[in-house]
Amino acid sequence: MNAQHSSGLRGYLLGPSLPDAAPEGRWSVQRTMADRAAGTRGTFSGVVTFSGTDDDGALRFHEEGTVRWPAAAGETFTGPATRDYVLRPTDSPDAMDMEFHDGRPFHRMSFSADASQDRHWCNPDTYRVTYSLTGPDQFSYTWDVTGPRKDLLLESVLRRLPAAAVSPEQLDTGQLGSGQLGTDPLGSNP
What we know:
Layout: H1 8-14, E1 24-35, E2 40-52, E3 59-70, E4 76-89, E5 95-100, E6 105-110, E7 117-122, E8 125-135, E9 138-146, E10 151-160, H2 168-173
Antiparallel strand pairs: 1-2, 1-10, 2-3, 3-4, 4-5, 5-6, 7-8, 8-9, 9-10
């Protein structure tokens, strides 16, 4: 990771900041969600914001956007979705420990070859995550969830947004100008 960003993972997620502004990294996120047991697929489109906290270099992770998921009778549920985590520094600048908003440990986030995979046990299912750095302004992660209750594959692609504000509604309704997020919102991930 240090080869890509001199200040490690935290600096990469925050990115360049505007003068006189608190550092904040804003990323578009496009996610495909597959329930392999049910044979259903859905999507999530939104924005992830990484912002500093007053707590020893930790970052707040806030995601908001729109989820689309198959519903009864061939309908599609479309509605808002949010989630919040905290990323805490580790002994390596290339990794951060992600926690749920209430402080429970979740998993380690890293792009380093020896630490880009982790797992989380959520009784009775196992969540396995793999992070991949795909460019200076793009990364992805995949959750493979298996167990007696769940059989899911969740693939997310994040692209750094320009410093100008972009709302989740703009992402969802296509109100952005051409080229601001690239031509393929899902990249090479289906």
